[in-house]
Known about the structure:
The protein has helices at residues 15-31, 58-72; strands at residues 2-8, 35-43, 48-55, 75-81. It is α+β, with helices and mostly antiparallel strands. The chain has a 4-stranded antiparallel sheet, with helices on one face. The longest helix has 17 residues, at 15-31. The protein starts with a strand and ends in an 8-residue tail after the last strand.
Amino acid sequence: MKVMGTNTWEGDMPRDLLVQGALDFADDVKAKGIAELMDACIAGDENLMWCSWDTEDLAGLQAAFDEMNTMSGLVSKLTTVDIMFPAAV
Length: 89
């Protein structure tokens, strides 16, 4: 299944720290066999980061996000989604 994650935060966070943390998180989740990151975007001036995942373990991905949020101060929401483009065309 495809999952969209949105992440927000309060205050200032260095962009480099957010990007490296996201890459480390994606590597860890993949290494554990929970999910694979498909793509990610960041709008640092909006305190918004979002990513899409391919997973069959939504509960495991949610648990990983919950743990990451506790350590990072991010607030995340996961939602299952359907891909519209280009796969559905």
